[in-house]
Model the fold of this input.
Amino acid sequence: MARPPPIPLPRAWPVHTRSGALHALGLVRFALMHVRGWCADSRVARVRLAAERDIALCSAAQAREQARILHARLEAIDPSRRPHYPPEERLAILELRAAAGWTAAETARRFLVTVQTVASWMRRLDEQGPAALVRLPEPVNRFPDFVAAIVTALRATLPSLGKVRIAQIVARAGLHLAPSTVARMLKRKRPAPRPPSRAGRPATAATDKPVRTVTARRPQHVWHIDLSLLPAMSGWWVPWLPCSLVQRWPFCWWLCVVLDHFSRSVVAWRLFQKEPTAEQVCRLLDDARRAAGGAAKYTVTDQGVQFRDRFRVWCDMNDVTPRFGAIGKSGSIAIIERFFHALKDEMLRKLSIVPLRLPAMRREVAAYVLWYQTHRPHQSLGGRTPSEVRDGVVPARERGRVEPRARYPNTNPSARRVHGGLALRVDRVHGRAHLPVFELREAA
Done:
């Protein structure tokens, strides 16, 4: 007797089967609820006891299944990675939820997941079948270990770098990381101390919400001008009495800087062996005007002796409106004071011996200004450098992007995938160890 030809099953037969099983379990639950409700109201004690026994047995079976799933998850947890339920356990959780009649919130509470996770499982099951519940053993958005090694190497090269600065530096090389991702990578190697809590501190307008008093609308619109002391003998020299009586070479240098507010770029600077006069500051402003192709619309200074009569004459001759900076305002003298702080922290304190000869000290300051202008990402500029903002060029972080995650969806057509890893290359500006220039290259 010939066998009948096999009947081909529909392509989505496993999808319908799994989804139908969940619906069948839900219908069984409603049927049991109806029968148990009739038995619970029965006048016969034996029937009522049988209903209670059946309810107890079902609850115990569900509790055992829940405990088995949780136990399997706890055994598979890796402390260094986020735990995930395997596909079989996800389907078992959904079946148990259908049998017990739990809500998504109750299911999430019992199995230590979020409500969104349960809803995602149900949606994928209804739309794509049980195969959609399968997850890769490693999340697709997890960065390879060599990315964490690059971040750690950056911190080791410059320990003063924070998570935002590191993210901006690697973005200039094409590798885009969020500051929170950088913080997690650094915390794996060496946990950073937690910042002190600000609970109980009164909020003030000067500290929590500073008001900008100066707004620059374009490059060379507002200039900041100020003087600062660079100690040549920082081991014992301090800027107060009695050492303040000798505020001149060879004990310290005087640095005068003209800084553009919009781009944070250094327009002009000059070193002096003693406190400069107003005439010398005006000559520096003439150099800044020639370098920028014209004078700024406004200048912001403090009320020093260099910025009085002679300075006002220069402003009138060049159609410049002088302004005095207000203490405690973010758009005021804090802009140039932050530059001086960065210069002393990133250049002066890194020198084993501060040069006592004027040409040598000029070379040190010139090297730092070059590095500051072209290679140091500025946090207030969104990771761009002052020269990129001043010249209006495309920032380095937007010129090319690399994607080290092999399975991450490549939604950016300009992104370039790397398969052999990335290596960090460190160059130095004029050979200065404290002025690094970072570059990422694909490993061979």
